Amino acid sequence: MKEPKRSARGRRVASPEEAAFLDLLRTADLLERGIVGVLKTEGLSPTQYNVLRILRGAPEGLSCGEIAERMITRDPDITRLLDRLEKRRLISRSREAKDRRTVLTRVAPAGLVLLGRLDAPVQQAHRQQLGHLGAGKLRKLMQLLQAARRESR
What we know:
mainly alpha, Arc Repressor Mutant, subunit A, 61% helix
């Protein structure tokens, strides 16, 4: 078995792929912490905020499975997540008239108001975090990230 490469300090040297992966994790964690601070003011988690944004973009409503497919991070207990949002009256769920087995979830008026309050602070946080890169570098970064996701499926 081949011995891993070591730095001058004796630490194992990461492959370029591993180093990039670790940098992505560190960056994602740092960026998420900035947004968590904004969302905390309204008592929302990033996952709850993501669901509300998804539903705002689908006024006709979505099934639980459709919401799960569109989420940024996978939540194994989407039903419980929706229960918490419904308890706060941020979403509503109803059975489909055509197919009673289908339950559609929609963002409620209170959820739209909450999202409206968060739009500007969230955008400001994104500008503070990434605005220094400029439009060109941001486009390139998005292309690289999309390519990584495409090849990793």
